[in-house]
Specification:
It contains 2 helices and 31 strands. With 427 residues, it is mostly beta strands. It has one domain: Single-stranded right-handed beta-helix, Pectin lyase-like (Pectate Lyase C-like, 3 Solenoid), CATH 2.160.20.10.
Length: 427
């Protein structure tokens, strides 16, 4: 049968048609519902406006049987760590160049010659940016001789000294008579086969060595770097250096000391993390040598974190002494050590003289959180034997030791002071 001829007839399985008057009723119901929603939204807006205009917060009623409600304390922002204003102006630069990607930055080959040629070919007054997060293998030090107003930005890249050795020329950077230089954002990896172990006679490889080079070196900054695994020191100054700022770096497993000042004036070491391995010597060492033309003046070491002062018997927080290096060691003057935290071990240190007496030494606001250590009983350089591992002060003029804290139980003697004048000592 042809169903087209009977489409006006309904079968039981077919839906009835919706008449127009039924649709009109549905439309009216929807319109009424939308009107009610709009009215509710207007009411809620008025309530919110009213609450916002109330004089104070609304506190819900408290059942008399409930315990008192503690007031809500707003979160307190962490304290802002004071940052010392830069001790000198930044290098003056007028453009940026980038180390070419054609120089191998995978660490597969020695690229020292190529990097040195690129640096030598870059005029003073430039920013030199390395490839980000690269790895450059260098067989010996990159040298900046009599250069000025340069910023070398590693961009997180690593300079790996390999195969290297323990001579000065095996350092990562050597700055000879350079002025207004900033080294930033590098990982500097030395070539010591026994990282963190002092091997005397094999300690001249350094992360950054700053030295006289026909003229004094002046205004050198090292920041944002990881310096590790050197035979010798992290940063070292030798002869005629004026103005060094080492801040916001990390030092790990360097063989001798992380910081060494053998001659200089105006050295600021701030806001760094130092990890001292069991067989290295000191976090920092102020030690003029050679003759009376070698001096160490105006050294500030502050707001640093020190870890690992609990191993080597001569493993020191710091040393400031002119007992070695030459027959007529130079003077030590104006040394400030403040607001540092020793997370392991004690504030074991020596300050003393075999030559000119150290003058104006201030040690204040430091905290030691570890256990006291016993000094090396075989020490023969002259400091008093402080068996509790504190400060050994001898032959000094103008010593202030105040506001330091050691969390040891039982308490120990913070300092032994011998043959010193103008002493202010508050344990």
């Amino acid at each position: 049968m042809n169903t087209d001829q009977h489409e006006h007839k309904h079968s039981p399985s077919m839906k009835p048609r919706v008449h127009r008057h039924a649709l009109t009723e549905v439309d009216a119901a929807i319109a009424a519902m939308e009107a009610r929603v709009a009215a509710l939204e207007e009411t809620m807006a008025n309530v919110i406006l009213t609450i916002s205009q109330l004089p104070g917060p609304i506190t819900p009623p408290i059942d008399p049987g409930d315990p008192p409600v503690d007031p809500v304390t707003p979160p307190v922002d962490p304290p802002i760590v004071p940052v010392t204003a830069p001790p000198f102006a930044a290098p003056v630069t007028a453009g940026t160049v980038t180390v070419p990607s054609s120089i191998d930055h995978t660490g597969a080959t020695d690229v020292r010659a190529a990097l040195q040629a690129f640096i030598d070919g870059t005029p003073n007054g430039r920013v030199i940016e390395f490839q980000p997060n690269a790895k450059y293998r260098i067989g010996s030090a990159l040298t900046l001789s009599a250069r000025s107003n340069l910023i070398l930005d590693g961009k997180g890249s690593e300079l790996w000294v390999y195969p290297g050795g323990y001579a000065q020329t095996d350092s990562t950077f050597r700055l000879l008579g350079a002025t207004d230089i900033s080294l930033k954002n590098f990982t500097m990896t030395g070539s010591s086969p026994t990282p963190g172990t002092a091997i005397f006679g094999q300690e001249r490889q350094t992360g950054v060595q700053i030295i006289y080079g026909g003229a004094a070196a002046r205004r050198i900054e090292v920041t944002g770097c990881l310096i590790r695994n050197m035979y010798g020191d992290g940063v070292e100054t030798i002869y005629d250096v004026y103005g060094v700022w080492v801040h916001h770096n990390e030092f790990r497993n360097n063989g001798r000391s992380h910081i060494t000042m053998q001659c200089g004036d105006g050295y600021f070491v701030e806001d760094n993390d130092f990890y001292l391995a069991n067989n290295s010597v000191a976090v920092f060492d102020v030690e003029p040598f050679e003759d009376n033309d070698s001096w160490c003046r105006n050294f500030t070491f502050q707001r640093n974190n020190i870890y690992g002062l609990d191993g080597f018997p001569s493993n020191f927080y710091f040393a400031a002494n002119n007992t070695g290096g030459g027959p007529n060691p130079g003077p030590i003057e104006n040394i400030t050590v403040k607001d540092n935290v020793c997370h392991h071990g004690s504030m074991r240190a020596i300050i003393g003289a075999a030559g000119p007496r150290p003058k104006r030494v201030t040690i204040t606001g430091n905290v030691a959180l570890g256990e006291p250590q016993t000094w090396n009983p075989d020490w023969t350089a002259g400091p008093p034997k402080n068996t509790t591992g504190g400060l050994g002060i001898y032959h000094c003029d103008g010593v202030t030791i105040t506001g330091n804290a050691c969390t040891f139980d039982p308490p120990h003697t913070l300092a032994n002071i011998v043959d010193s004048t103008a002493v202010v000592y508050v344990p």
